[in-house]
Amino acid sequence: MYKDLKRYFWWSGMRREIADYVAKCYTCQRVKAEHQRPAGTLQLLPISEWKWADISMDFIVGLPKTKKGNDSIWVIVDRLTKSAHFLLMRTTHMANIYQATMGMATYEALYGRPCRSPICWAKPEDSLLIGPELVRQTTEKVALSRECILTAQSRKKSYADQQRRPLEFQVRDLVMLKVSPMKGV
């Protein structure tokens, strides 16, 4: 309000008086965007049917340049297994990190068995799985991943919706929009 009024008026103590007026105005406080719960409930993405059927991508930019001149990373993540690929970066250190959403590590969700590391290198039974048995075990891991993700999404939605209010509009409803000139909206 101050910024709107200062274009046309000025008086000593103007900013303080306007702030006091707005703080005491019941209507101003009731409709102030910061005092209202965000509109609309959380809309979840559908769970992928199989590994790498659906992906998410992001870019990490503004990093210091490497010797080859690279200053960004393209991150590609499988939405089912949470397996991530970082182009121009090694990702082997991320393979054994437990993903709470899936209930297993990324490598295990992707390949159907735990990643062998120096700690458990002497487990030969993992490498004996071939053919139909490997397919069966991988299919079980995908089903388990889907179950765990559904549970995590459901929990996330219930928590998020507690902080939000559902939106319902009818044809010809009049609505007020909060616009931001800085964002071009």
From TrEMBL:
Gene Ontology molecular function terms on file: nucleic acid binding
Classification via InterPro entries: Integrase_H2C2, RNaseH-like_sf, RNaseH_sf
Pfam families: Integrase_H2C2
Domain Integrase zinc-binding: 1-33
Domain of life the protein comes from: Eukaryota
Gene3D superfamilies linked to this entry: 1.10.340.70, Ribonuclease H-like superfamily/Ribonuclease H
PANTHER family the record matches: CHROMO DOMAIN-CONTAINING PROTEIN-RELATED, YALI0A06105P
Record's protein name: Integrase zinc-binding domain-containing protein
